[in-house]
From TrEMBL:
<feature type="active site">
    <location>
        <position position="205"/>
    </location>
</feature>
<dbReference type="InterPro" id="IPR001789">
    <property type="entry name" value="Sig_transdc_resp-reg_receiver"/>
</dbReference>
<feature type="domain" description="Response regulatory">
    <location>
        <begin position="17"/>
        <end position="128"/>
    </location>
</feature>
<feature type="active site">
    <location>
        <position position="178"/>
    </location>
</feature>
<dbReference type="InterPro" id="IPR008248">
    <property type="entry name" value="CheB-like"/>
</dbReference>
<dbReference type="InterPro" id="IPR011006">
    <property type="entry name" value="CheY-like_superfamily"/>
</dbReference>
<feature type="active site">
    <location>
        <position position="298"/>
    </location>
</feature>
<feature type="modified residue" description="4-aspartylphosphate">
    <location>
        <position position="67"/>
    </location>
</feature>
<keyword id="KW-0963">Cytoplasm</keyword>
<dbReference type="Pfam" id="PF01339">
    <property type="entry name" value="CheB_methylest"/>
</dbReference>
<dbReference type="InterPro" id="IPR000673">
    <property type="entry name" value="Sig_transdc_resp-reg_Me-estase"/>
</dbReference>
<feature type="domain" description="CheB-type methylesterase">
    <location>
        <begin position="166"/>
        <end position="356"/>
    </location>
</feature>
<protein>
    <recommendedName>
        <fullName>protein-glutamate methylesterase</fullName>
        <ecNumber>3.1.1.61</ecNumber>
    </recommendedName>
</protein>
<keyword id="KW-0378">Hydrolase</keyword>
<keyword id="KW-0145">Chemotaxis</keyword>
<keyword id="KW-0597">Phosphoprotein</keyword>
<dbReference type="InterPro" id="IPR035909">
    <property type="entry name" value="CheB_C"/>
</dbReference>
């Protein structure tokens, strides 16, 4: 983004139309509102690749604004749109995190992440300008999408092969859950492979004295070793630690664990928000945050803190949640990069970690 972005006119000379694609209803609503402020006509909105491709083919917009992470359908949108109904695609948010891949597949422009830190009016003008410029780009059918349609290209983003050895910085996965959490955790963790290359931190609301039983049960039903976290231990790739019930689990530099006393006014012990915030501070964009089923709002602000520093964040959808309280609260504040049903979360985590687990250059 340049200085001219901020000062660009709010309404393009020619009214540009677009289809918006994002991972959550909250994000779709926010982007649609900003685009309307900028004078862009929003013809349709989609949460999935299938819906996006259908809308673009049916409505024929001037542009597509893509805010869906590449690993959960974003790349599929680019490839299939460019194969079937070539339309200028502008990347934003999660879709911009692997912009080089999407641009190679046919996208034409990227909105810089810093633009989101502007006020709503300025950000709306940036979006309007990018879409206005993109609408004048002449695009052609892209061959990669043709390969997909013929079954010669994989669906979505194939996880990068996991390479073992010294990692530049180990990615960390952190999961929060409450009511309905144990079976959801068993489902998610049970879908991760034994050689999973990242440590996993679990914060589950549970009465004192029951966490040990949860960890022991999970250890027997999932491929990864599971134990209760201890202060001073270091997080290890391929190992799951569960926060104890007598305090808050904090991740410190060098991925050391510290269990700190709960605050006197604290509603839930352990607290998901506290752990998420510590991961945001230490790991920043090399983390994956997941908020599963649960009652209340714990985890929403912590997940937002993670997303704001570039982490990939996931909220469980309503249809598969026992209680859609915590994920709904996260979606309400735009803390989730994507909203997914429980059976799809493990695959999204695997893909995100595979992209982050890049070995050091020799």
């Amino acid at each position: 983004m340049t200085a001219s972005d901020v000062g660009a006119p709010a309404i393009p000379e020619r009214r540009v139309s677009t289809v918006v694609v994002a991972g959550t209803h909250v994000r779709l609503a926010r982007l649609s509102h900003l685009l309307q402020m900028s004078g862009v006509e929003v013809l349709g909105a989609a949460k999935t690749a299938e819906d996006a491709v259908t809308l673009v083919g049916t409505l024929g917009p001037d542009t597509v604004l893509l805010d869906l992470a590449l690993g959960v359908g974003g790349l599929e949108v680019v490839e299939r749109v460019m194969a079937r109904c070539p339309t200028p695609i502008v990347l934003i948010g999660p879709a911009s995190q692997q912009a080089d891949v999407a641009l190679a597949a046919g996208a034409v422009d990227v909105v810089a992440p810093t633009a989101e830190h502007l006020g709503p009016g300025a950000f709306a003008r940036v979006l309007g300008r990018h879409l206005s410029v993109a609408s004048r780009v002449r695009v052609i059918t892209h061959p990669r999408g043709k390969l997909r349609d013929r079954g010669l290209a994989s669906d979505g983003v194939s996880p990068a092969p996991v390479q073992h050895g010294a990692f530049r910085r180990t990615p960390v996965v952190v999961i929060g859950a409450s009511t309905g959490g144990p079976p959801a955790l068993a489902s998610l963790l049970g879908s991760l492979p034994p050689d999973f290359p990242a440590p996993v931190v679990v914060v589950q609301h549970m009465a004192e004295g029951f966490v040990e039983g949860l960890a022991g049960w999970l250890d027997g039903v999932v491929p990864l070793p599971v134990s209760v976290a201890l202060s001073g231990d270091r997080l290890r790739p391929g190992h799951v630690v569960v926060a104890p019930s007598d305090g808050n689990l904090v991740v410190e530099s060098s991925l050391r664990i510290r269990v700190e006393p709960a605050r006197p006014s604290q509603l839930h012990v352990p607290e998901v928000d506290r752990t998420f915030r510590s991961v945001a501070e230490v790991c920043r964009d090399r983390a994956v945050g997941v908020l599963l089923t649960g009652m209340g709002r714990d985890g929403a602000t912590g997940l937002l803190a993670m997303r704001r520093v570039g982490a990939f964040t996931i909220a469980q959808d309503e249809s598969t949640s026992a209680v859609w309280g915590m994920p709904a609260a996260a979606l309400a504040v735009d803390a989730a990069s994507v909203e997914l049903p429980l059976p799809e979360i493990a695959a999204a985590v695997l893909d995100a970690v595979a992209r982050l687990a890049v070995p050091e250059a020799v």
